[in-house]
Amino acid sequence: MGCKIYLVRHGETIWNHALRYQGHADIPLNERGKRQAEALAERLKGEEFAAFYASDLQRALDTARIVARPHGKEVIPLASLREINFGAWEGLTREEIKKRFPEVAERWWQAPYHTRLPGGETLAEVAARAVGTLKEIAERHPESKVLVVSHGGTIRAAIGYLLRMDLNQYWRLRQDNAALNIIELFEEEKAILMLFNDTSHLNGI
């Protein structure tokens, strides 16, 4: 038995609602996002988690704290679980990005794995830091359940990497706000995806 990682995307923010790229911008949960986190907390209150981890950005950290509250445990913040650093794209919509950065936008949407965003990261760098962190967490908590709250792009990159996907196709993995994924992670990066993008706890929130 490996470590079961309950990997969660944070609840909604005002920039999610407006379809703006967030990246490392520290945007808080909106009211809907808080309700989504509370619904997930209700769903998971009967589980036994060895630990709670989250990106240190407040939308992820606050989601994790809401879910951890019934368990009486603190959340450990980790910068390595942050969203993709979108650099100069942060705060912009897709249409604004296409107008201001047409060439790099085309390269990113075709081949994000090695395309560096202006002032930001490549997807390869995101996958490396995210998977490395998940491996460390799994090694720290063998044969246990842990909850990890991160971000849409980071989660898709990590899951795609662990499933040996072509990460240039990572956008094919949908990841909704407050969605629950479960990965059982073993040694040598062997992983089983047990649940993906489950939002059944939201009931239309």
Describe this structure in words.
- The model has no long low-confidence stretch (mean pLDDT 96).
- The chain has helices spanning 14-17, 31-44, 58-68, 94-100, 102-110, 123-140, 152-162, and strands spanning 3-9, 51-55, 75-78, 145-150, 180-185, 191-198.
- Strands 3-2-4-1-5-6 form a 6-stranded mixed beta sheet, with helices on both faces.
- It has 205 residues and is an alpha/beta fold.
- The protein is globular and about 50 Å long.
- It has one domain (3-198): Rossmann fold (3-Layer(aba) Sandwich), CATH 3.40.50.
- The termini are far apart.
- A hairpin with a 5-residue loop joins strand 5 (180-185) and strand 6.
- One of its GO terms (cellular component) is cytoplasm.
Topology of this structure?
Layout: E1 3-9, H1 14-17, H2 31-44, E2 51-55, H3 58-68, E3 75-78, H4 94-100, H5 102-110, H6 123-140, E4 145-150, H7 152-162, E5 180-185, E6 191-198
